[in-house]
Amino acid sequence: MAKKSLGQHWLNDEPTLKAICAAAKLTGDDTVLEIGPGQGSLTKHLVAETKKVVAVEIDSELASRLPGAPSLEVVEADILAFDLNRLPSGYKVVANIPYYLTSNLIRILSESANPPSLMVLLVQKEVAERIAAKPGQMSLLSVSVQLYYEVELGIVVPARFFKPPPKVDSRVVILGRRDRPPFKDLDRQKFFRIVKAGFSGRRKKLRSSLAGGLGISKQQADDILKKANIFPDARAQELTLKQWCQIYQSVQQN
Predict the structure, then answer these.
(1) Would 9 disulfide with which of 37, 106, 115, 162, CB 3.0-4.6 Å?
(2) Which of 122, 41, 133, 56 is nearest to 87 (CA)?
(3) How many other C-beta atoms lie within 10 A of the C-beta of residue 233?
(4) Are β-strands 72-76 and 52-57 bridged in parallel, bridged antiparallel, or unpaired?
(5) The domain 188-253: what is its CATH number?
């Protein structure tokens, strides 16, 4: 029986499982990290198409029931505490992940010293679309992911395909690691402090949200935005990644 506390919803629709694997462009040389394999419906497809699958499952009962295979390693653990450095460079992540884990998990994977080269994740439809947002609809989540990954949206998976069905539909999101960071010499901690400040007041103009979030005067915020060639009355969701970098550089110089 699925456990609500762990966000468990089983997906057994074969065409959908095959589509998820196809999106990952799996080869016989790949090592795949599967997060929350559950009953193993996706696992069996991954094992058939890859060199090795490392399946991390927090539920001890489920972990013990996963089918044995020479290329499958089952790890009973919380994925948020799993050591990603034990995986080979260039590994892929393919998973139907619990909704409550999505943002934190993607952040940990993205910022890891050994990040995945590709992630194919089945997540809440609204979250997938937020991750893939364009300027005008950007959020802290989309900036955080797009700094490291090129984002593509995959198929929509109706709630009725799951047992028990969740309250909302899901969607596949495909994240391909950028070959090189879009910006050189970026201090991630300082960069995201600025981005978080910008999004601290969703409906506020950048001048106000930066001033409040960074603890500076509105005049100082105006000066920062002027140096970055950004209109002070703009709003955070309208900015591109490049513009966030311009603000970061302006703050560094201020």
Answers:
(1) 162
(2) 56
(3) 10
(4) parallel
(5) 1.10.8.100
**SS3 string of 65-94?**
HCCCCCCEEEEECCHHHCCHHHCCCCCEEE
Query: What residues have CB less than 8 Å from 116, skipping those under 6 apart?
Result: 33, 91, 92, 93, 109, 177
- The residue behind tokens 């950048």 is 206
Instruction: Tokens for 202, please give them.
Output: 């969703």
**Could you report how far apart the first and last alpha carbons of the chain are, in Å?**
57
Q: Name the residue ranges covered by the structural domains of the chain.
A: 4-177, 188-253
- Please give the model's pTM, rounded to 2 decimal places: 0.91
Domains 4-177 and 188-253 share a fold: no
**Nearest-5° Cα angle at 203, 247 to 186:** 20
* Phi and psi torsions of 193, nearest 5°: -65, -40
Question: Which residues, 6 or more positions from 146, have their beta carbon under 8 angstroms from its beta carbon?
Answer: 131, 241
Give residue-wise pLDDT tens across range 156-211.
999 999 988 889 999 999 999 998 877 778 899 999 999 999 999 877 899 999 99
How many Å apart are CA 225 and CA 241, to the nearest integer?
A: 15
**CATH level 2 (architecture), domain 4-177:** 3-Layer(aba) Sandwich (3.40)
Tell me how crowded residue 106 is: count the other CB atoms within 10 A of its CB. Answer: 24
Token pair of 57 as six digits: 């499952």
- Output the pLDDT for position 6: 44
Give pLDDT tens digits for 100-133: 889 999 999 999 999 999 999 999 999 999 999 9
For the residues of 157-223, what is the DSSP string, one character each? E-GGGEES--SS-EEEEEEEEPSS-SSSS--HHHHHHHHHHHTSSTTS-HHHHHHHHHT--HHHHHH
